[in-house]
Design brief:
two-stranded antiparallel ribbon; about 20% strand; nine-stranded mixed sheet; about 40% helix
Length: about 280
Protein backbone atom coordinates (compact mmCIF):
# COMPACT_ATOMS: atom_id res chain seq x y z
CA UNK A 1 0.00 0.00 0.00
CA UNK A 2 1.21 3.48 -0.80
CA UNK A 3 2.28 5.63 2.15
CA UNK A 4 -0.39 8.13 3.16
CA UNK A 5 0.88 11.71 2.92
CA UNK A 6 1.12 13.67 6.15
CA UNK A 7 1.12 17.40 6.65
CA UNK A 8 2.96 17.38 9.98
CA UNK A 9 5.68 15.08 11.32
CA UNK A 10 4.27 11.91 12.85
CA UNK A 11 5.69 10.18 15.93
CA UNK A 12 4.95 6.68 17.20
CA UNK A 13 5.00 7.23 20.97
CA UNK A 14 5.59 3.90 22.72
CA UNK A 15 5.10 4.54 26.45
CA UNK A 16 2.75 3.59 29.26
CA UNK A 17 -0.46 5.47 29.87
CA UNK A 18 -0.47 6.43 33.56
CA UNK A 19 -3.81 8.11 34.18
CA UNK A 20 -2.54 10.42 36.92
CA UNK A 21 1.01 11.61 37.52
CA UNK A 22 1.85 13.44 34.29
CA UNK A 23 4.48 11.21 32.71
CA UNK A 24 4.91 9.07 29.60
CA UNK A 25 1.98 9.39 27.15
CA UNK A 26 0.11 11.99 29.18
CA UNK A 27 3.01 14.41 28.64
CA UNK A 28 4.39 13.16 25.31
CA UNK A 29 1.07 13.58 23.49
CA UNK A 30 0.23 17.15 24.56
CA UNK A 31 3.82 18.37 24.20
CA UNK A 32 4.33 16.89 20.74
CA UNK A 33 0.92 18.17 19.64
CA UNK A 34 1.64 21.67 20.95
CA UNK A 35 4.93 21.67 19.07
CA UNK A 36 3.08 20.82 15.87
CA UNK A 37 3.77 17.09 15.54
CA UNK A 38 1.24 14.28 15.34
CA UNK A 39 1.65 11.68 18.10
CA UNK A 40 0.29 8.18 17.51
CA UNK A 41 -0.07 6.49 20.88
CA UNK A 42 1.08 2.93 21.44
CA UNK A 43 0.42 2.28 25.14
CA UNK A 44 2.68 -0.37 26.66
CA UNK A 45 0.46 -0.61 29.75
CA UNK A 46 -2.36 1.28 31.42
CA UNK A 47 -1.83 2.27 35.06
CA UNK A 48 -3.90 4.39 37.42
CA UNK A 49 -0.73 6.34 38.33
CA UNK A 50 3.00 6.00 37.74
CA UNK A 51 4.86 3.76 40.17
CA UNK A 52 7.21 6.29 41.79
CA UNK A 53 6.53 6.88 45.50
CA UNK A 54 2.88 5.89 45.01
CA UNK A 55 1.49 2.52 46.10
CA UNK A 56 -1.74 0.71 45.19
CA UNK A 57 -1.70 1.59 41.50
CA UNK A 58 -3.61 -0.56 39.00
CA UNK A 59 -1.64 -2.11 36.14
CA UNK A 60 -2.85 -3.63 32.88
CA UNK A 61 -0.17 -5.00 30.60
CA UNK A 62 -0.69 -4.38 26.87
CA UNK A 63 2.24 -6.36 25.47
CA UNK A 64 -0.05 -8.52 23.33
CA UNK A 65 -1.68 -5.47 21.74
CA UNK A 66 1.50 -3.73 20.61
CA UNK A 67 2.39 -5.60 17.42
CA UNK A 68 -1.23 -5.96 16.24
CA UNK A 69 -1.55 -2.18 16.59
CA UNK A 70 1.63 -1.70 14.58
CA UNK A 71 0.49 -4.15 11.86
CA UNK A 72 -2.85 -2.35 11.58
CA UNK A 73 -1.08 0.98 11.12
CA UNK A 74 1.19 -0.60 8.52
CA UNK A 75 -1.83 -2.04 6.66
CA UNK A 76 -3.14 1.53 6.41
CA UNK A 77 0.15 2.70 4.91
CA UNK A 78 0.96 4.85 7.93
CA UNK A 79 4.62 5.94 8.17
CA UNK A 80 6.45 7.67 10.98
CA UNK A 81 9.10 10.37 11.13
CA UNK A 82 10.13 9.20 14.59
CA UNK A 83 9.77 6.09 16.72
CA UNK A 84 9.97 7.17 20.36
CA UNK A 85 10.08 4.54 23.10
CA UNK A 86 10.00 5.16 26.84
CA UNK A 87 8.77 3.14 29.81
CA UNK A 88 8.47 -0.55 28.87
CA UNK A 89 6.78 -3.16 31.06
CA UNK A 90 8.76 -6.30 30.19
CA UNK A 91 11.75 -7.59 28.24
CA UNK A 92 9.30 -8.88 25.62
CA UNK A 93 8.31 -5.29 25.03
CA UNK A 94 11.97 -4.46 24.36
CA UNK A 95 11.99 -7.10 21.61
CA UNK A 96 8.73 -5.71 20.22
CA UNK A 97 10.26 -2.23 19.99
CA UNK A 98 13.25 -3.77 18.16
CA UNK A 99 10.81 -5.34 15.69
CA UNK A 100 9.03 -1.99 15.26
CA UNK A 101 12.41 -0.35 14.58
CA UNK A 102 13.10 -2.91 11.86
CA UNK A 103 9.64 -2.64 10.30
CA UNK A 104 9.08 1.12 10.54
CA UNK A 105 12.62 2.49 10.76
CA UNK A 106 12.85 3.64 7.14
CA UNK A 107 15.58 5.95 5.91
CA UNK A 108 15.25 9.24 7.75
CA UNK A 109 13.07 7.89 10.58
CA UNK A 110 14.49 8.93 13.93
CA UNK A 111 14.65 6.09 16.45
CA UNK A 112 14.70 7.67 19.90
CA UNK A 113 15.07 5.40 22.93
CA UNK A 114 14.57 6.87 26.37
CA UNK A 115 15.85 3.93 28.46
CA UNK A 116 13.45 4.57 31.35
CA UNK A 117 14.72 2.34 34.17
CA UNK A 118 15.35 4.40 37.28
CA UNK A 119 16.49 7.64 38.88
CA UNK A 120 18.49 8.96 41.83
CA UNK A 121 20.85 5.95 41.70
CA UNK A 122 18.12 3.28 41.89
CA UNK A 123 16.04 1.21 39.48
CA UNK A 124 12.28 1.83 39.57
CA UNK A 125 10.39 -0.69 41.73
CA UNK A 126 8.97 -2.50 38.68
CA UNK A 127 12.37 -2.82 37.00
CA UNK A 128 14.64 -5.82 37.58
CA UNK A 129 18.43 -5.78 37.03
CA UNK A 130 18.19 -8.62 34.47
CA UNK A 131 16.31 -6.27 32.14
CA UNK A 132 19.17 -3.76 31.91
CA UNK A 133 21.00 -5.78 29.22
CA UNK A 134 17.85 -5.86 27.08
CA UNK A 135 17.60 -2.09 27.33
CA UNK A 136 21.27 -1.77 26.33
CA UNK A 137 20.52 -3.91 23.23
CA UNK A 138 17.65 -1.59 22.34
CA UNK A 139 19.86 1.47 22.82
CA UNK A 140 22.37 -0.05 20.39
CA UNK A 141 19.78 0.20 17.60
CA UNK A 142 18.75 3.79 18.35
CA UNK A 143 19.70 6.98 16.55
CA UNK A 144 19.45 8.84 19.83
CA UNK A 145 19.24 7.77 23.47
CA UNK A 146 18.32 10.00 26.41
CA UNK A 147 19.29 8.28 29.68
CA UNK A 148 19.41 10.17 32.93
CA UNK A 149 22.60 9.80 34.95
CA UNK A 150 21.26 6.77 36.84
CA UNK A 151 20.23 4.99 33.65
CA UNK A 152 23.56 5.84 32.03
CA UNK A 153 25.39 4.17 34.91
CA UNK A 154 23.19 1.05 34.76
CA UNK A 155 23.64 0.80 30.98
CA UNK A 156 27.41 1.02 31.40
CA UNK A 157 27.63 -1.18 34.50
CA UNK A 158 29.20 1.71 36.39
CA UNK A 159 28.67 2.85 39.97
CA UNK A 160 26.31 5.80 40.29
CA UNK A 161 27.60 8.90 42.03
CA UNK A 162 25.53 12.03 42.54
CA UNK A 163 28.72 14.10 42.72
CA UNK A 164 29.27 16.94 40.30
CA UNK A 165 31.37 16.25 37.21
CA UNK A 166 33.28 18.60 34.94
CA UNK A 167 32.60 19.04 31.22
CA UNK A 168 35.37 16.62 30.12
CA UNK A 169 33.91 14.03 32.51
CA UNK A 170 30.44 14.54 31.01
CA UNK A 171 31.86 14.20 27.51
CA UNK A 172 33.71 11.00 28.47
CA UNK A 173 30.45 9.58 29.88
CA UNK A 174 28.68 10.38 26.60
CA UNK A 175 31.50 8.71 24.65
CA UNK A 176 31.18 5.53 26.71
CA UNK A 177 27.43 5.52 26.00
CA UNK A 178 28.05 5.96 22.27
CA UNK A 179 30.24 2.86 22.38
CA UNK A 180 27.03 0.90 23.11
CA UNK A 181 25.96 1.69 19.53
CA UNK A 182 23.54 4.64 19.31
CA UNK A 183 24.38 7.47 16.90
CA UNK A 184 23.85 10.25 19.45
CA UNK A 185 23.29 10.60 23.17
CA UNK A 186 21.82 13.19 25.51
CA UNK A 187 22.39 12.51 29.21
CA UNK A 188 20.14 14.35 31.67
CA UNK A 189 20.79 15.06 35.33
CA UNK A 190 24.34 16.31 34.72
CA UNK A 191 25.68 18.83 37.25
CA UNK A 192 28.98 20.64 36.88
CA UNK A 193 28.31 22.63 40.06
CA UNK A 194 26.28 22.10 43.24
CA UNK A 195 23.60 24.60 42.21
CA UNK A 196 23.04 23.64 38.59
CA UNK A 197 21.64 20.71 36.63
CA UNK A 198 21.16 20.06 32.93
CA UNK A 199 22.04 17.82 30.02
CA UNK A 200 25.11 16.86 28.00
CA UNK A 201 24.80 15.93 24.32
CA UNK A 202 27.22 14.21 21.96
CA UNK A 203 26.79 13.34 18.28
CA UNK A 204 28.88 10.42 17.07
CA UNK A 205 29.12 11.62 13.46
CA UNK A 206 30.30 15.19 14.00
CA UNK A 207 31.73 14.69 17.48
CA UNK A 208 29.87 17.85 18.51
CA UNK A 209 29.53 18.06 22.30
CA UNK A 210 27.34 20.47 24.26
CA UNK A 211 26.40 21.00 27.86
CA UNK A 212 23.57 23.19 29.10
CA UNK A 213 22.50 23.70 32.72
CA UNK A 214 19.97 25.72 34.70
CA UNK A 215 19.73 26.46 38.43
CA UNK A 216 18.80 23.30 40.36
CA UNK A 217 15.71 23.15 42.59
CA UNK A 218 16.34 20.18 44.91
CA UNK A 219 13.62 17.53 45.04
CA UNK A 220 12.25 14.46 43.30
CA UNK A 221 10.33 15.73 40.28
CA UNK A 222 8.32 13.05 38.51
CA UNK A 223 7.95 12.87 34.75
CA UNK A 224 10.83 15.22 34.01
CA UNK A 225 12.61 12.72 31.74
CA UNK A 226 9.48 12.22 29.65
CA UNK A 227 8.89 15.96 29.37
CA UNK A 228 12.54 16.51 28.45
CA UNK A 229 12.51 13.77 25.81
CA UNK A 230 9.27 14.98 24.24
CA UNK A 231 10.50 18.59 23.91
CA UNK A 232 13.85 17.38 22.58
CA UNK A 233 12.15 15.23 19.95
CA UNK A 234 9.70 17.97 18.94
CA UNK A 235 12.55 20.41 18.44
CA UNK A 236 14.57 17.91 16.39
CA UNK A 237 11.56 17.19 14.18
CA UNK A 238 11.29 20.89 13.42
CA UNK A 239 14.89 21.17 12.32
CA UNK A 240 16.76 22.19 15.44
CA UNK A 241 20.23 20.75 15.95
CA UNK A 242 20.93 18.42 18.87
CA UNK A 243 22.61 21.04 21.07
CA UNK A 244 19.86 23.61 20.53
CA UNK A 245 17.10 21.04 21.04
CA UNK A 246 18.71 19.78 24.26
CA UNK A 247 19.10 23.33 25.59
CA UNK A 248 15.44 24.08 24.82
CA UNK A 249 14.41 20.88 26.62
CA UNK A 250 16.56 21.76 29.67
CA UNK A 251 15.07 25.26 29.85
CA UNK A 252 11.51 24.00 29.44
CA UNK A 253 11.91 21.29 32.10
CA UNK A 254 13.50 23.74 34.53
CA UNK A 255 10.56 26.11 34.00
CA UNK A 256 8.08 23.31 34.79
CA UNK A 257 9.92 22.45 37.99
CA UNK A 258 10.11 26.13 38.99
CA UNK A 259 6.34 26.64 38.60
CA UNK A 260 5.58 23.43 40.50
CA UNK A 261 7.91 24.41 43.33
CA UNK A 262 6.48 27.93 43.49
CA UNK A 263 2.91 26.74 44.05
CA UNK A 264 3.86 23.95 46.48
CA UNK A 265 2.08 21.20 44.51
CA UNK A 266 2.71 17.51 45.33
CA UNK A 267 5.62 16.67 43.00
CA UNK A 268 4.57 13.01 42.88
CA UNK A 269 1.63 14.10 40.74
CA UNK A 270 3.86 15.56 38.07
CA UNK A 271 5.18 18.97 37.21
CA UNK A 272 3.47 21.98 35.69
CA UNK A 273 4.26 21.64 32.00
CA UNK A 274 0.89 22.97 30.84
CA UNK A 275 1.61 26.61 31.54
CA UNK A 276 4.91 26.34 29.69
CA UNK A 277 3.34 25.26 26.39
CA UNK A 278 2.56 28.75 25.02
CA UNK A 279 6.19 29.77 25.59
CA UNK A 280 7.40 26.57 23.98
CA UNK A 281 5.31 27.20 20.90
CA UNK A 282 6.65 30.75 20.75
CA UNK A 283 10.25 29.54 21.12
CA UNK A 284 9.82 27.23 18.13
CA UNK A 285 8.07 29.77 15.92
O1 LIG B 1 8.50 8.93 34.22
C1 LIG B 1 8.99 7.65 34.31
C2 LIG B 1 7.90 6.65 34.53
C3 LIG B 1 7.06 6.33 33.49
N1 LIG B 1 6.09 5.43 33.62
C4 LIG B 1 5.86 4.82 34.80
C5 LIG B 1 6.66 5.10 35.88
C6 LIG B 1 7.72 6.03 35.75
C7 LIG B 1 8.57 6.34 36.89
O2 LIG B 1 8.35 5.98 37.99
O3 LIG B 1 6.43 4.49 37.04
C8 LIG B 1 4.73 3.84 34.92
Amino acid sequence: MQAIQRSVPRVMAIHDLSGVGKCSLTVALPILSAMGAEAAAMPTAVLSTHTGNITGYTYRDLTDDMLPMAWHWRSLGICFDALYSGWLGSSRQNDIVLTIFEEFGAEGTLRLVDPVMGDHGRLYSTYTPDRVNGMARLCAKADLITPNLTEACFLLGETYSAEVMDAPGARALCERLLSLGPKSVVVTGISTGEGTIGAAALEAGSGAFSLHEMPRIPGVWHGTGDIFGSVLLGALLFGRGLAEAAALAVDFTAGCIGRTYACGADPRLGIDFERGLPGLIAALA
